[in-house]
Amino acid sequence: MAFCSNCGKQLDENTNVCSSCNAQAEQSASTDNNQGSTSQPNVFQKMNNTSDTTAEYDAKDIADNKVMALLSYLGILVLIPMFAAPNSKFTRFHVRQGFTLFLAYIGLFIVNFLLGMIKTTHYVWGVPYQATPGIVVFIGWLLGIPLFILSILGIINAYQGRAKELPIIGKFKILK
Q1: Do the Cβ atoms of 132 and 22 come closer than 8 Å?
Q2: Between the CA of residue 48 and those of 14, 33, 42, 84, what are the distances in Å?
Q3: Which of 15, 48, 71, 96 is the most buried (most CB within 10 A)?
């Protein structure tokens, strides 16, 4: 599908001249390649291609419990919807994912704590001191980025009223 570079009108496939402004159409191979590459999903789109089971849930349940579902992805606050809305199927779906994410955050905390225990001895002007190497702290920080992204994805899904599994951890069913 080609468009006129002068006026923007869609051109017929067999013509090189725009019917509205009579400008010469310029089609390049790079335009065709760019259009072809957008149809192929990138790595993030492939990873985020998880099952969406929103159709299985009642629309009234979704509308009434969006806030509770959203709280499921905010760390320890997962306990609020867990006990405040036990009869909502939509909220339970998000609580299961949020609880798994919360356990992953606890695991990250333990890993960061253990990495922080790594000490090295350095000498500054002949005086020894112990410090955690900056690279160890940086690695611990980097490990938290994917969990933060998963939290954001969960919040977006809950806000939009979708029951879509999170990438990677969505398949783990710790709670029933």
Answers
A1: no
A2: 39, 25, 10, 29
A3: 71
Q: Report the 10 Å Cβ neighbour count for 149.
A: 13
What is residue 3's three-state secondary structure? strand
103 within 8 A of 73, measured Cβ to Cβ: no
What phi and psi, each to the nearest 5 degrees, are found at residue 81?
-70, -25
Residue type, 17: V
CB of 65 within 8 A of CB of 86? no
Q: 101, 92, 107: which is closest to 169 by C-alpha?
A: 101
Question: How many angstroms separate the CA atoms of 44 and 3, rounded?
Answer: 30
CA 51 to chain centre: 14
The Cα 11–Cα 21 span in angstroms is: 11
Strands (DSSP E) contained in the chain are: 120-124, 127-131
The whole-angstrom separation of Cα 118 and Cα 50 is: 38
**pLDDT tens by residue, 42-96:** 776 777 777 788 888 889 999 999 999 999 999 999 999 999 988 999 999 999 9
Q: Tell me if the pTM is above 0.70.
A: no
